[in-house]
Write a structure and sequence with these properties.
By secondary structure, the protein is α/β, with parallel strands linked by helices. Helix content is 48%, strand content 18%. It is built from 15 helices and 17 strands. The N terminus is likely disordered. It comes from Corallococcus carmarthensis.
Amino acid sequence: MAEEQRLATVLNVNDDEANRYLVNRILEMSGYHVLEAATGMAALLMAEEHRPDVIVLDVKLPDISGYEVCARLRANAATAAIAVMHTSATFVTPDKKVQGLEGGADAYLTQPYEPSELIATVRSLLRLRHAEQQARLRTDQLIEMDRRKDEFLAMLAHELRNPLAAIMTAIGILERKAPPTDTKEARMHGIIQRQTHHLARLVDDLLDVSRITRGKVELRTEPVNLTESFQQLLAILRPRVEARGLNLEVHLPRTPLWLEGDATRLEQIFTNLVDNAAKYTDQGTVTVDLFQEGVDGNAQAVLRVKDTGIGIPPEKLPAMFELFAQADTSLERSRGGLGIGLTLVRTLVRMHGGTVEAISGGLGQGSEFTVKLPLLPQDRVPRTAGTNLLDARRARRILLVEDNSDARQSMRDLLELWGHQVAVAQDGVQGVALALEHAPELALVDIGLPGMDGFQVARTLRARVGQQLRLVALSGYGDPEAYQRALKAGFDVHLTKPVRPADLDRVLSNL
């Protein structure tokens, strides 16, 4: 530290020549490199040019006051971090000291002062500046490490989603064929299906928690009928729960419950809660209740998920929604999971303007999670006639552009199984050529193509074919930035890999 002090530069600003000379000598004898200025404007110029470590700044100057000099130093990004010490023989009352310190000064000495007091204050400011620099450096390093981590997670997810997409599509084909007659084969199909969906969810959760901790999650809101959405979700959730040997009791309202929300994120909330209940229940029942509470402007949708599982100890209950918190912390980790699902639930519920709470009677007493979400007022509820929830699938000419051979073949097989006429390309250049040659009605385009990427393919097709061709982006990147880039490039829809056959079927039916 002594070596750092000897190398430190101090700018001494005072219009009194004798006083300035005296302070210069005191500082130089203590080993500091000293610069000097007689006016406020000269001090500002020297501060920006030389970037001193400390400025000893007299308040009373001939052009602008020391208060004004300090304010301008703080307003300039180049000089904002320089330590400033006011000195004055005139402005010595407490209110003037307060004015100087509130205005941005780090210290305030009134004259006369002892040389030792001046040097001790300069040393104190240097220590403070050194600590701030170290903290700033550490912060910058942490930000850079966090950025690299996010890049790594995004790349990891992209690499994992490509093989997952091929596997999930292949599963979809197997599901649509005649069920296997052999019991063992049927069991193997079920294992592959469950574990693939589980792995896909883990990948999504990892990326979501990274985005949430950085405030990067965005909701794509629209009017959502919770009753209808949950009815559709039950087709997926019920087999998962019953596969564990559990009963699933569901009580849904007979009327729609409309709210303004992100349908995908609401599905994520419900799925996490039901899966969590099933995971921590060895035998018994998972009960799901969805109902309305309150009326008019105070109306809320209430989702209650109750289980007869292992329960939550009282000491762990307050932290259940914290990141990586888990009720089961035993060494065997038989329940699995990353301890981030409930954190996602709480964050997403709050983003929808709602609340979530957990209660439990303790170990062995089961758990109950309650989500409350604000409903739309009656004047904003969509006035729609009853719609047929079954898809309106029809045969189409489809172009599939995908460089991963397994994903390409499995997707082609699935589309042809649905009755579509499919042309395939393994890179962007070939994809554009086929689009111009065969005039497809719809193109499924992978974003991460070699050479000409998916964004370039979309822009080229929009320029040469126009708007009549429907474009669907397939990407291993599911962040909001990727979604916006896809829309900007000309895609109509952005789907994140692995794409579930049901989601793909729904998109094809709606376009």
